[in-house]
Specification:
- The complex is a heterodimer of chains A (327) and B (187).
- By secondary structure, chain A is mostly helical.
- Chain A contains twelve helices and four strands.
- Helices cover 65% and strands 5% of the residues of chain A.
- In chain A, helix 5 packs across helix 7.
- With 187 residues, chain B is mostly helical.
- The chains are: A mainly alpha (327), B mainly alpha (187).
- At the A-B interface, helix 3 of A face helix 1 and helix 5 of B.
């Protein structure tokens, strides 16, 4: 499974670099459109477009402290010994260097999430009703899932990808408005290119959003697979997912994470929970999470507990070709 | 004339960087193995330290189970002796695991004991420590496997001979009983 994690990290970097490259090319193209031919301006525009998301990401990372509600109680060995032991166990099983801080959230929801852009400052939050509802094995599965997100740096990755989706959406809106304004004279051949360009600009927010959801779902599956391998007990997580999905309602999520809401939009926050607030029946294009029933079935159908078994089960249940390859 | 020399230099620099990268990867993996091993020892020691408290708590209630308590005490003493032979040490720890498991199994017959808060706390601690021992061993094995695989791959195997990266062997979980103790269900 560690090869899968490595492979996933490599592929993620490639995806991000590719997106930055696209940004750069796009910026360069806009620059070339404004000042015809490749000039200093278009090169600067290209470099700026590629570098801007990176700077934005690091700024977000630097400015956002992990927000803690007054409803969150930090878990110590004294107040919640069982939870404390569980997260220590998962730290050992996953090889993390530092045990992430664990908080119990006093809110009337059944959910858990992880937050934090690097394993050093990451936290896991479990809601109180969830802690009371689940058995030790089930809690272990849930916390293993969240710890896997921390280990795989999913939160940082999705924030970065989400930033780029937002940039694409803003830029495309600006470009659409500006291209309906003043018209630069262009030749006949150029018009078709301009139309194609316009269609691309209109559709790219949609495409990038769909791609973002695809990435989010893949990472949820990978977190499930890692949790199964760490705990050696897929049934624990499966049973927890079942209980949560039966008991969850949409109410009570308003204003839950006020502080977090300042920096991240609803989609990104939704992606960090273990079960999304809005559920869908299948793995739809637009959901941050796979269908919970799929996740449960895959876990229950595993013959063993390592990644190969998860992959086989995943292929059988979803009909996909593979989840993530080993190399 | 100059161009050729530059190309050769570039290739050499590239190879040099690759060697450094391989070496560093192996160092990281090797240290991960060492850390994983010491984590196992930390948890084993923690278990040793918890046991006297357990015996004290349980003694008053389980007067008819003296032999189990003795077994645990003996196993603990043997394990704490830190035999040099890894196999023997591992055997002793496994015996200790299964005797603690027997104690908890038998404690089902003593409702008074099961209501004792102290006992419940200790049970949670011991169960968690057993889990941690299991997870630490599992992580150790995974690390060793990663390290060995990376070592054996080409071209890394050439460098390992030169730089003398040592071999590690994996932990074997011998008895089925030990596996059972690791997964205790609190249903």
């Amino acid at each position: 499974m560690w090869e899968v994690i490595e492979s996933n990290k490599r592929k993620s970097v490639i995806v991000l670099l590719f997106m930055l490259l696209l940004f750069g090319l796009f910026g360069g193209a806009v620059g070339a459109y404004i000042e015809p031919d490749i000039t200093f301006i278009s090169v600067m525009a290209a470099i700026f477009s590629a570098v801007f998301p990176v700077i934005l990401f690091f700024n977000i990372r630097r400015n956002t402290k992990i927000s803690k509600n007054s409803n969150m109680i930090k878990v110590t060995h004294n107040n919640y010994p069982e939870l404390y032991n569980i997260i220590e166990e998962m730290t050992i099983a996953s090889g993390l260097e530092k045990t992430p801080d664990l908080y119990v959230l006093d809110a009337d929801i059944l959910n858990a999430y992880a937050m934090g852009t690097s394993p050093k400052n990451a936290i896991v939050v479990v809601s109180k009703p969830l802690k009371n509802l689940l058995t030790r094995d089930e809690l272990q599965g849930v916390i293993a899932h969240e710890v896997s997100h921390i280990l795989n740096r999913d939160i940082a990755y999705m924030i970065f990808a989400g930033t780029m989706v937002s940039i694409i959406s803003v830029v495309s809106r600006v470009l659409i408005r500006s291209s309906f304004g003043s018209r630069k004279s262009s030749s006949k051949g150029g018009n078709i290119l301009a139309i194609l360009g316009l269609i691309f600009i209109i559709l790219s927010p949609l495409f990038s959003y769909i791609f973002y959801m695809f990435l989010s779902r893949k990472r949820e599956y990978l977190a499930d697979a890692c949790a199964a391998q760490f705990t050696r007990n897929p049934e624990g997580l499966a049973s927890a997912l079942r209980k949560i999905s039966l008991g969850n309602t949409d109410i009570n999520y308003n204003n839950l994470r006020e502080e977090d809401n300042k920096y991240y939009d609803d989609t990104m926050l939704n992606a960090s929970y273990i079960i999304p607030i809005k559920k869908k029946m299948h793995d739809s294009l637009f959901s941050t999470h796979p269908a919970t029933e799929n996740r449960i079935q895959i876990l229950l159908n595993m013959a063993g507990f390592d990644y190969d078994e998860y992959n086989k089960s995943y292929i059988k249940i979803t009909g996909d070709r593979k989840l993530i390859k080993k190399r | 004339m100059n161009a050729n020399i530059i190309y050769v230099l570039m290739v050499l620099v590239f190879i040099f960087l690759v060697i450094i990268s391989i070496y560093n990867q192996l160092v990281v993996l090797k240290n991960r193995v060492k850390n994983a091993y010491s984590q196992i020892e930390v948890q084993l020691k923690r278990r040793h330290d918890l046991i006297p408290n357990l015996i004290e708590t349980v003694k008053g209630y389980m007067q008819y189970e003296k032999d189990i308590l003795e077994k645990i005490t003996k196993a603990r003493a043997a394990a704490m002796n830190m035999s040099n032979d890894a196999k023997v040490q591992s055997e002793n720890e496994n015996i200790l695991s299964s005797s603690i498991g027997s104690l908890f199994a038998v404690s089902e017959n003593y409702p008074d004991l099961k209501a004792n808060q102290n006992f419940l706390k200790l049970q949670e601690e011991l169960v968690s420590t057993e889990n941690k021992i299991g997870f630490a061993r599992q992580f150790y094995n995974d690390s060793v496997m990663q390290y060995n695989t990376k070592k054996e791959m080409f071209p890394n195997n050439i460098f390992c001979a030169i730089f003398k990266f040592e071999e590690f062997s994996m932990f074997e979980v011998e008895k089925a009983a030990e596996r059972e103790v690791v997964k205790v269900d609190f249903n």
